[in-house]
Amino acid sequence: MPQNSEHSPKISTNLGTKRSWLLKTKLTVFISAIFLVSIWSLAFYASRVLHKEMANLTQEQQFSAVSLIAAQINDALEIRFRSLVRVSLEITPAILSNTASLQAFLEQRPLLQILFNGGVFATGRDGIAIASCPLSTGRIGVNYLDNDFISIPINDGKPMIGRPTMGKKLAAPVFSIAVPLLDTTGTVLGVLVGTINLSQPSFLDQITNNGYGKTGGYLLVAPQYRIVVTATDKRRIMTPTSAPGVNELTERFIQGYEGSGILVNPLGVEVLASAKRIPIAGWFLAATLPTAEAFAPIREMEDHILAVAILLTMFAAGLTWWMLRQLLAPIFTTVATLVAMTDSDKQPQPLPIVRQDEIGKLIDSFNGLLKTLEHREEAFRQQSDFLKVLMETIPNPIFYKDATGKYTGCNRAFEKYFGQPRDQFIGKTLYDIVPKEIADKYYQQDQELLNHGGEQQYEWLTTSNPSDSFRNVIFNKAVLLDKNGKIDGLIGVISDITERKKSELALQAQADFTRRILDSTDAHITILNEQGIIVDVNNAWNRFAMENNCKDMNKVGIGASYFCSWSPEFGDITHAKEAFEGIRQVQRGESESFRITYPCNSPTEIRWFSMRVFPLQGIAGHVLISHTDISTLKRTEGHLSAALAEKEVLLREVHHRVKNNLAAIVSLMNMQSKIFDNLQCRNALTDLSGRIHSMSLVHEMLYRAESLTKINFQDYIHDLVSHLRSSLSTPHITFQVEAQGVTVPLDLAVPCGMIINELIVNALKYAFPQGTPRSGNATCLIRVTMSCDNGSYTLSVADNGVGLSPGFDWTQCRTLGMVLIRMLGQHQLGGSYALDQKEGTCWSLTFTPRERKGNA
């Protein structure tokens, strides 16, 4: 044993050393990998960005150089074009027709020989040279019509730069600039041609004699002919470009693209190329530089970056190893201390903190965790004490048993329930405490719970000892598990429900009383739950079903769907949908109640029922529905409706006969008026008949109207005006009636009609002498209006006639018409008049109907 104890520290130390080397190696490799990825990613990114930027800069510089030279070549060609045009304008048809004069003319123009190193010559319209300078070229007499620089100016009359070709006499690569020779009418007489000999020094020497960079050069290309005009590399002069579709960038240059790119030239060398158009000739100038030379500085820079990245990676790995060795030393010391602490049974002590850095904070946090664990143990002890106190204060008896059925604990309420201190039954079974027949029942329940687990609840009528009365109790039990999840015992809670049982009996008695009340009523009553299922019915409900020959009482009894119980065998079910919706509204709380009356006829009699629905308080969705037989009430209502209809017919007959009698009186008065010779008597009878007709018209409209209480006053005024116009023969007078929507009862219609009659008659008689209106009006007009606003009526009769006589006081006038106007308007209707004579005469009567006394 001593020998083993001596070797155990060494084993721990070796294990700690091996772990420290493994951890430092992993961290060093991991950090170095991160640094390596970062450095190399940065190097790769910098290399790519630098390569792209320097390539763009190189391309921009190359494009700038080629653009400058292209502009110079374009200017040189333009000078030569202008010189030829200027000389051609000086050649007249007379000079052209005289070859000696034309030859002398050309020789006197030394500038042309300077501008065109291949000479200048002129041809006739047939394309044959007739003059040439210098004569040594031997062009005179040669036909050049097969060249485009001769045929196009002759045919189209346009100057041009011809296709680069081998000269017929110079036997060297040349291109020519030609302009047409015209007469005064614009007819082409010949062509003046200037030739550039590409094998001799010319303005293109800056291309042929100068390169671009160390190995690059220039090419002057005629894209319309796909031929190299001249180039720094003499081997490329007058050679064709690559075939169509072979080189994408070359095709873009030929199609007019100006810019830079990378391509492989016909010699198989990858070059950086830039092109710029020469507009006057339709050519482009290209500069090429092998990419090996163009990007040499970039590759050199990438090599430097690679070398620096390798050096930084090695330096970072070494520095990381050294730093981890210094920084992780306290951690390995702490690990050794924890290993030793784990092998000890002593209370864990705080670990020593070597220095105040992140590792020191880590150790300090661990020490704090030790304190937290200590506090939690103390809190667990306090919680355990709290639960013990809580169990003791719970009023329900609580007990614990082990798996063998022995009591292991309880609370004070259980001691009180048994009437014995807990030390009298702790460690004992029920067989040691109560008689065997009682213990057997409890034991059987306990064994079922211990065998199957879970929870258990049951109700028993029991007593704690023979001297006490029996009480109703509920046992709630659950199993207790050990740390391995196996059943180790049980816990039980006893609840005394004796008082609740008494309350349930009282409620049952109340329910029986309510049942007797429901069964004693004649209404058919049922109670539905929230799904519409019948949960209860009274005797009247069952009796009605049997009296109506219900074949299956289960369809209308408890448990059946109420909404399915409406069957045609019980009568008309056309109101079922409305009834069902009303019931649902009460169930959802949208209505406080619902009521509907519906027919339910039997084969022998017509029956009516009233259904009422009320919610049951305290039970969501439950409703009480009662069906009451109201057939007797319906028959009584039928009798009353028939009597009311007979009364209405009788009233219509009364109005009809009153109208007929008044019409007969009017006819008798009209007949009597024709007998009198006295004009005054005849007029009096005519006025009186008009008054009676206004009353007769009210009864006629009541007889024709749907309602016997009110008439449409708009129609009434129209009929009254029509009668007055006809009886007084006044077709030249225009009437306007406005009483739309106004209805007037009988007791108001008669006096209003008589007032309108008197005012219209007065207007017809006196307002329009000689049938003319008041000055300033073109038409004789009488306007009658009637309106009602908040129960107050306004009647107005106005005309645009000459108005009342000066000094006329209508309130004192004793004529029958004025007396009737005052009596009916002020006394009978209780209204007030307003008279306006600004635009003729306007009578306005405003009144509010008085309350009627007695029966109408």
Features:
alpha+beta; five-stranded antiparallel sheet; 22 helices; disordered N terminus
Structure, explained:
- With 856 residues, this protein is of the alpha+beta class.
- Helices cover 48% and strands 21% of the residues.
- It is built from 22 helices and 28 strands.
- The strands form six sheets. Strands 1, 2, 3, 4, 5 and 6 form a six-stranded antiparallel beta sheet that branches.
- Strand 5 and strand 6 (188-197) form a beta hairpin.
- Helix 18 runs antiparallel to helix 19, helix 19 (679-704) runs antiparallel to helix 20 (713-728) and helix 21 (746-767) packs antiparallel against helix 22.
- It is flat and about 145 Å long.
- Residues 1-17 have low confidence and may be disordered.
